[in-house]
Write a structure and sequence with these properties.
CATH architecture of the largest domain: Alpha-Beta Complex
Low-confidence stretches: 1-7
Number of domains: 2
Distance between the termini: 58 Å
Order of helices and strands: EHEHEHEEHEHHEEHHEHEEHH
Mean pLDDT: 91
Number of strands: 11
Oligomer: single chain
Length: 327
């Protein structure tokens, strides 16, 4: 009989993927150690190390020796957060899988609520609030812009709701819970998406939720499910958002199928045609001190990311083709 069928298998498995953040990880582990879980709820923690070069393993193993819950350390050598997530899902023993990140502090009732919300509301999955824990007061251009806050994976809706194709409330992996059966029905995380080393690509979480909703799964948002997201000083700078938009678009382009439109060197022509327009819109907005200038700059960086991603995808495909045999 497999682990899931054992009497002592936990009800909830918390999956935490990490990459070279040993010091931040210590805080997250400490918060998980303080979880208040009512009997008979049982749970385990899986920490998936995605090829870290710091002392992540030592931190996890030291924590495991004193932790009040079972802790397993897993090593996933293939770089990419989605690979690490799929490794965790594959070996998790719980029927309910709860996901969080290595820069997140869950509230003390978080594990208990992941179980109660899914079971009491007959849901296949859920997400909740992700509140900021700023390293320093955020600049005005960031604090007042809901789009930029969303790019930081922050979420703070007041009312519970169902997630549907028409009501696409974003559920982020920093605070997400899914029944294991969801993965059996819709498949694993998309390895073409998600962070890859220092690349700031994302979307593996929202893409999976989109697939689950399309498959008829009941996904809900519940504001009582709360975590705090630590926002370091590097994320309070505009260059972080430029890189984020570029990397996310580049990753999406690399992972796409063959473009249906006409291309030049693998890049769809419409992207090349839009590029000077984006540049002009940004320069004009900046010249007249338009408050939307930074948003237009980010649109330009997103366009650039798509162009570079499609070109890189063509180069990769060309490199994989075997040379033609001499006739």
């Amino acid at each position: 009989m497999n682990d899931r069928g054992r009497v002592d298998a936990p009800e909830v498995t918390v999956i935490l993927c990490t990459y070279n953040r040993a010091r931040l990880l210590e805080d997250t582990l400490a918060a998980l150690a303080l979880q208040h879980t009512p009997s008979p709820l049982t749970w385990e923690l899986l920490v998936v190390d995605n090829n870290s070069t710091d002392d992540t393993r030592a931190v996890v193993e030291a924590f495991a020796r004193i932790a009040p819950m079972p802790v397993r350390y897993l090593y996933e050598p293939i770089q990419g957060k989605s690979n690490a997530l799929n490794t965790g899902v594959a070996v998790a023993r719980g029927d309910i899988l709860a996901f969080t990140d290595d820069d997140v502090t869950p509230t003390a009732d978080w594990v208990a609520r992941t179980s109660s919300i899914v079971r009491q509301r007959a849901a296949d999955g859920a997400g909740g609030r992700i509140l900021p824990r700023w390293s320093s007061p955020p600049p005005t251009w960031l604090a007042s812009d809901r789009t930029l806050l969303s790019l930081l994976a922050l979420q703070d809706l007041d009312q519970p709701c169902s997630v549907t194709a028409e009501n696409r409330v974003l559920i982020f992996g920093a605070n997400m819970v899914l029944r294991r059966d969801v993965f059996l029905d819709v498949g694993p995380f998309n390895t073409a998406k998600g962070r890859l080393g220092t690349k700031l690509a994302d979307g593996e979480d929202t893409e999976l939720i989109d697939r689950a909703v399309a498959a008829g799964k009941r996904i809900i948002y519940d504001p009582s499910l709360v975590v705090w997201h630590r926002i370091g000083p590097n994320r309070l700078r505009k260059r972080y958002f430029r890189k984020l938009r570029f990397d996310a678009s580049e990753s999406e382009a690399i992972g796409t199928s063959d473009p249906s439109s006409r291309t030049l060197l693998g890049v769809p022509l419409y992207l090349l045609m839009v590029l000077p327009l984006r540049l002009g819109q940004w320069l004009l907005a900046r010249a007249v001190f338009n408050p939307c200038a930074f948003q237009k700059e980010l649109a330009l960086f997103s366009n650039l990311g798509f162009v570079v991603g499609h070109a890189r995808r063509r180069w990769r495909l060309a490199a994989r083709r075997p040379p033609h045999a001499n006739s």
